[in-house]
UniProtKB/TrEMBL annotation:
Domain of life: Eukaryota
Protein name stated in the entry: FH2 domain-containing protein
Domain FH2: 337-713
Listed InterPro entries: FH2_Formin (IPR015425), FH2_Formin_sf (IPR042201), Formin_Homology (IPR051425), PH_domain (IPR001849)
Source organism per UniProt: Engystomops pustulosus (Tungara frog)
Length: 713
């Protein structure tokens, strides 16, 4: 129950004690585990999501029906803002803000505290995307990889490279040059050290005869020197762990004074844009300046002349002026009053697509078209809207005595057009759980949830001394809403009851599918046999190339098989695998028949589905807590209130049994997936959505390779 409404309506000492206990638990929340919260996209109540904050992987996940839709490392969190009611906003670097509504005030307070702790961890240097990557890939072949900028000795320009750190070597890939470049450096023969180049934090890798200087690329996430320095230090510490020597590397010669000054000028202009006092300047403009300066032709030391191809340097982007504050749209112009003859009957509109005027004459609707005679009064009566129309949209702008804020009243009046009832009926309607029994629709409940009166509204309406009938219809509904003591939690309970069976129905087959997929992997004999062929072929190549033999490989390797091509560009390592299997064990080529659950690309993940079950459990507990609270406040219950309590109890019992069964299946799924990870030597935190996707892609690529080879066999 939201704390605002608990305080407004008063509670027993027991309720106060419970709140105090929860508050203490929130303050002493352990930040070394995984948290799941039921949230909604603001203004879109039907878009339910799970917000998972995982301190083990230092990631925030956006989960929808078990599928990991988005994931953000802690380092990407930019800020967190507390808004009115249940609203809050989480801002990320390089991604649009998340404007969400929590399921209850307690969840919102916990989320805000956890996110603020993450921001504090960033300030203290306790979060690092580099270290998070290393931790996640501790058992992988590639321990660390990322996009860095390398100083090119010939052009004195910074060129982007994909850098992969393995246990025995560092590999640099560059696709920006005319001829793609790949450089391999043996870890045992190199030294790593931190340094700076023109006030920018850099690090260098020095091996026999060569020195490579790198820096962290500048982007929105790493726009400060502190951030880039911290990430540089993380790269250095990781690389040093795999090097036998780490003495200071000499700065390479051949760097011209002109290029140094140019680089200094570029950095000064870039950081002057970033550190500008005007907050309205966009970071993208500063990046544009950064890129524009790099277009100035460089002077090479050896030649002493400018490069032959001169690219003119653009002028910096003008400073962006501060945008105007957002102003709400004006209310529509008042309609002119209708004459009495047209106001007697209000009908539904028939929406059709009209024939364009230029086509009328040559169509059946032309001059010879004869209008049919109809009984207009009969038609009007048949399609007449409800006799009670709470509010006319044009009525709000003309009214000056409405108590509610005019903009809110205007929006609320549009919502009330779908409420075909008197304001006095609202309280009883909210005691009916199901729409089929006469309760409000899901849409009406959601709209009421958006317009729950604030504390200020309640004070104004409950202090009104006049007759309710003298109020505008919008005010009459607001007055009735203020008279319902537990309106907010009751609406949340009704919406949760409507949502729960739908989510259980959606999640149950997804969990069953994951269980079947795990069982197929555990029981399949053909798939491990195929993997042994891959291991034998890989060792055959690596032994002759000097890389050495391996005892096993991770399933992520399956995605790389089509990338290794032979002398014939159309023949890949995957084609060679199919060929070897057909030569040695032809029946093994049908191994996919044992993995039918992987024919479609898996969507939901074990991690996401467990989060869904966890949130459903909390939701069921919240409904039961509301039932107990409602019962304690209504000792002398009316007939409708007794029926409401009875139905709540039945629903909790029915959904409780279904949830117990769902929880058992979720435990089975988690146990089987752990066995799968153990069988194939994968990391304990390896996500199933990714792992099952590798297998699914491999099956499709294997079949395609089989089709390619079949004509030649």
């Amino acid at each position: 129950m939201p704390l605002l409404y608990q305080k407004e309506w008063g509670r027993s000492s027991a309720a106060l004690s419970i709140e105090k206990t929860r508050q203490e638990e929130t303050e002493n929340l352990p930040l070394n585990q995984q948290y799941n919260f039921n949230v909604y996209k603001f203004r879109y109540r039907w878009q339910k999501r799970i917000l998972q904050i995982d301190f083990f992987t230092q990631m925030i996940f956006n989960i929808e029906k078990g599928t990991l839709k988005k994931q953000f490392p802690f380092e990407q969190v930019k800020s967190c803002e507390d808004n009115d009611g249940l609203r809050f906003v989480i801002s990320f670097h390089g991604h649009q803000d998340y404007e969400l509504e929590a399921a209850c005030m307690e969840d919102k307070q916990i989320i805000l505290r956890i996110v603020n702790e993450i921001l504090q961890m960033q300030k203290n240097g306790q979060t690092s995307p580099v270290k998070s990557f290393v931790k996640k890939n501790a058992f992988s072949d590639v321990v660390l990889e990322g996009l860095l900028e390398r100083l090119d000795n010939l052009s004195n320009k910074w060129v982007k490279y994909l850098v992969k750190v393995k246990r025995d070597e560092v590999i640099f890939y560059c696709s920006q040059k005319l001829v793609p470049e790949k450089i391999c450096v043996n870890m045992q023969d190199c030294a790593v050290c931190a340094g700076s180049y023109n006030s920018m934090p850099t690090f260098s890798i020095h091996c026999t005869g060569n020195t490579y200087i790198f820096r962290i690329p500048l982007n929105e996430q790493n726009k400060s020197l502190e951030k880039t320095t911290s990430m540089r230090d993380d790269w250095v510490s990781i690389l040093k762990e795999f090097c036998l020597q780490s003495h200071q590397c000499p700065v390479p010669e051949g760097i011209s004074v002109a290029s140094k000054n140019l680089e200094m000028e570029k950095e000064e202009r870039f950081y002057s844009q970033l550190n500008t006092s005007s907050e309205c300047l966009k970071v993208e403009d500063a990046y544009k300046v950064y890129e524009e300066v790099s277009l100035i032709p460089l002077v090479l030391e050896n030649s002493g002349t400018a490069a032959t191809e001169k690219i003119p340097c653009s002028t910096p982007s003008p400073q962006v002026t501060s945008p105007c504050p957002f102003l709400p749209p004006p209310l529509p112009v008042p309609f002119r009053p209708l004459n009495p003859s047209t106001r007697q009957i209000k009908t539904k509109a028939f929406h059709w697509n009209t024939v364009p005027q230029e086509k009328i004459n040559k169509s059946m609707w032309g001059p010879k078209f004869a209008q049919k005679k109809i009984d207009t009064q009969r038609i009007l009566r048949q399609f007449q809207t409800s006799d009670f129309s709470p509010v006319l949209e044009s009525d709000i702008a003309k009214q000056s005595n409405i108590l509610l804020d005019q903009k809110i009243a205007h929006n609320f009046s549009i919502v009330l057009k779908h409420f075909h009832m008197q304001p006095e009926e609202l309280k009883e309607k909210l005691l009916i759980i199901q729409e089929c029994d006469g309760g409000l629709s899901d849409e009406n409940l959601t709209n009421l949830r958006r317009y729950v009166p604030t504390a200020k509204d309640r004070g104004m309406y409950l202090g009104y001394k006049g007759s309710p009938t003298e109020l505008h219809i919008v005010d009459q509904f607001m007055l009735q809403m203020c008279k319902i003591p537990d309106l907010c939690p009751r609406l949340d309970t009704l919406l949760a009851i409507r949502e729960m069976p739908i989510y259980m129905k959606d999640i149950h087959p997804l969990i069953s599918q994951k269980i079947k997929a795990c069982k197929q992997l555990l029981h399949s004999q053909a798939f491990p046999a195929v993997l042994t062929y891959i291991l034998a072929m890989g060792n055959c190549l690596n032994e002759t190339s000097g890389k050495g033999k391996a005892k096993g490989f991770q399933l992520s390797t399956l995605t790389k098989m089509s990338q290794l091509v032979s002398k014939e560009k159309s023949f890949t390592f995957l084609h060679a695998l199919v060929e070897q299997i057909l030569l040695q064990e032809p029946d093994l080529a049908k191994f996919s028949q044992e993995l039918t659950e992987f024919e479609a690309v898996p969507g939901a993940s074990v991690k996401g589905l467990n989060a869904e079950v966890d949130v459903l459990s909390k939701q069921l507990e919240t409904i039961d807590q509301y039932r107990k609270s409602f019962k304690s406040k209504h000792h002398k219950s009316s007939t409708s209130e007794e029926q409401f309590l009875k139905e709540l109890k039945e629903i909790i019992e029915r959904y409780g049994m279904q949830h117990t069964e769902l929880t058992k299946k979720a435990h089975e799924m988690k146990k089987l997936y752990s066995e799968v990870l153990q069988k194939f030597g994968e990391a304990e935190d390896q996500d199933s959505q990714e792992l099952f996707g590798w297998i699914s892609s491999f099956l499709k690529e294997f079949q395609n390779a089989y089709i390619d080879l079949r004509p030649s066999l």
